[in-house]
Design goal:
Elements (H helix, E strand, L loop, with lengths): L1 E6 L6 E4 L4 H10 L6 E5 L5 H12 L3 E5 L2 E5 L9 H4 L9 H8 L1 E5 L12 H9 L3 E5 L2 E5 L8 E3 L8 H11 L5 E5 L5 H12 L3 E3 L5 E5 L7 E4 L4 H14 L6 E4 L7 H9 L3 E5 L4 E5 L8 E3 L11 H9 L4 E5 L8 H8 L3 E5 L2 E5 L4 E2 L2 E3 L3 H13 E2 L1 E5 L2 H4 L5 H7 L3 E6 L1
Parallel strand pairs: 2-14, 3-13, 9-10, 17-18, 21-23, 22-24
Antiparallel strand pairs: 1-24, 1-25, 3-5, 4-5, 6-8, 7-8, 10-12, 11-12, 14-16, 15-16, 18-20, 19-20
The structure holds uridine-diphosphate-2(N-acetylglucosaminyl) butyric acid.
Uridine-diphosphate-2(N-acetylglucosaminyl) butyric acid binds next to helix 1, helix 5, helix 6 and helix 12.
């Protein structure tokens, strides 16, 4: 297993390119099962989650070639059963349910297991698929699904107790594109990644309206054709490096990120500015420079579905607020148990009190290096950010968590002037 050693205290400057979005790539890779023709995807990030999805597609019988960021998929001959050994490694594997049902009228996929960021049920995925004619048998940890009389469009409300569901919306949309008649998804997720999936499906011949709003209308078609598509920039990777710029950037030059989408970064931009940092977009919103402010202030964050503040960015802001004067409160309404990073950051001297889906942070003047353990993807990113400003060398163990979603993080940090090294645990 790899670990990352971060030598704190080096000011960051210069620029990097942001990768394609992991959370757009995963459902779009799965959606390539919907056609017998070739699909070419560009800017698929080289992270372990996309590699798992590619392995799942191959195990289902698809021919997949990957050459740097470009993935070519041909799913002419596929089977309906996804192997447990691969599926269990990544929750997003459940994205193959919708496409398999649509293409083959059946799918057998393991139930995803527990997750460190909290309960992650699949009831809304099943509600959506059932509504359009899927029968589901749960046995031996598997979801055995079939649509004996074919998938038939229906109106369905996918609102859960924590709001809309991103992958649940994706699954129903992917199943409905080949269903008979019209499907209407009410309380749909409107994250940019859902819109990217819809645009990909439309480019294959699907009829979808309203992606990016709370009501998506899908008119089923009889077949989809091959296509080429470029994945949108990763707004969470970009947001993570924006926080790095605010925390550890050289005050004169800051950190510049290219290949971003200004609109997708609005909630992160707003919070960085509210906390007193400088965020400047250029190149028609495709580049951004973040510089640390002279008098940063703590502030409050409540996560919410898009266009609200993303749950996937709250851990990184807790690293920022750890050394921001004053009091900050972060509440995660989507994953109220997603605060594993706080105990590790407290070992580095942060002052954090976690209680009932919230963390209260009292900023300290400095953090000190300590061996820390990554627990999930965004928690690991937060530890790396904290380590950039800690006194001494922080060892972040279990780096595989971060390799799931951050392409070449050590190389990108080195490019910005950080002192980091990857080593064996
Ligand atoms: N939920 C249910 N029932 C369901 C599905 C979800 O109650 O059937 C609940 C969840 O427990 C949660 C809320 O609904 O409280 C929202 O979960 P959602 O379904 O939207 O999450 P997801 O689609 O499984 C995606 C991202 C996550 C991101 C969330 C929320 C991917 C591959 N994953 O997960 O990303 O946190 O949306 O925005 O797109 C990450 O990248 O680190 C990550 C965890």
């Amino acid at each position: 297993m790899d670990k990352l050693i971060v030598h704190g205290g080096h000011k960051l400057s210069g620029s990097i390119n942001v990768s394609g979005a992991k959370n757009a790539s995963l459902p779009i890779l799965a959606a390539s099962l919907l056609t017998k023709e070739d699909v070419i995807l560009r800017r698929v990030p080289d992270v372990s989650d996309t590699n798992y999805m590619i392995q799942i597609l191959s195990a289902l019988g698809a021919e997949v070639e990957r050459s740097s960021g470009t993935v070519r998929i041909n799913a002419a001959n596929i089977i309906s059963e996804a192997p447990y050994e691969l599926v269990r490694k990544m929750r997003a594997s459940i994205c193959v349910m919708g496409p398999l049902l649509a293409r083959l009228g059946k799918a057998k996929v393991s139930l995803p297991g527990g997750c460190v960021i909290g309960d992650r049920p699949v009831d809304l995925h099943l509600k959506g698929l059932r509504a359009i004619g899927t029968e589901i048998d749960m046995e031996g940890g598997n979801m055995d699904m079939s649509a004996p009389t074919g998938l038939k469009g229906k109106e369905v409300d996918l609102r859960g107790k924590h709001g809309p569901t991103v992958l649940g919306t994706d699954n129903l949309m992917m199943a409905a594109v080949l269903a008979e008649g019209t499907t209407i998804i009410e309380s749909a997720a409107c994250e940019p990644e859902v819109v990217d999936l819809a645009n990909f499906l439309i480019s294959m011949g699907a009829k979808i309206e309203g992606a990016g709003t709370r009501r998506i209308t899908i008119q089923g078609v009889s077949a989809l054709h091959g296509t080429e598509h470029t994945i949108i920039p990763d707004r969470i990777e970009a947001g993570t490096y924006m926080v790095a710029g605010a925390l550890a950037g050289n005050p004169d030059t800051g950190v510049t990120l290219h290949r971003v989408c200004e609109e997708h970064l609005q909630p992160t931009t707003d919070k960085l500015r509210e906390a007193g940092h400088s965020v400047t977009f250029s190149n028609e919103g495709q580049s951004v420079t973040v510089k640390p402010g002279k008098s940063p202030v703590g502030c409050n964050i409540v996560t919410a579905p898009h266009p609200g503040f993303p749950t996937d960015m709250q851990a990184q802001f807790s690293a920022l607020f750890a050394i921001t004067p004053g009091l900050s409160i972060i509440e995660d309404t989507i994953f109220p148990q997603r605060f594993m990073h706080c105990a590790e950051m407290s070992r580095m001297g942060a002052n954090m009190l976690v209680d009932q889906g919230k963390v209260v942070i009292t900023g300290t003047e400095s953090l000190s290096a300590a061996p820390v353990m990554a627990s999930d993807l965004r928690a690991s990113a937060a530890l790396v950010l904290a380590a950039l400003v800690a006194d001494g060398a922080t060892e972040i163990n279990r780096l595989y968590h971060i390799d799931r979603g951050y392409e070449h993080i050590d190389e990108k940090l080195l490019q910005l002037g950080a002192k980091v090294e990857r080593a064996r645990e």
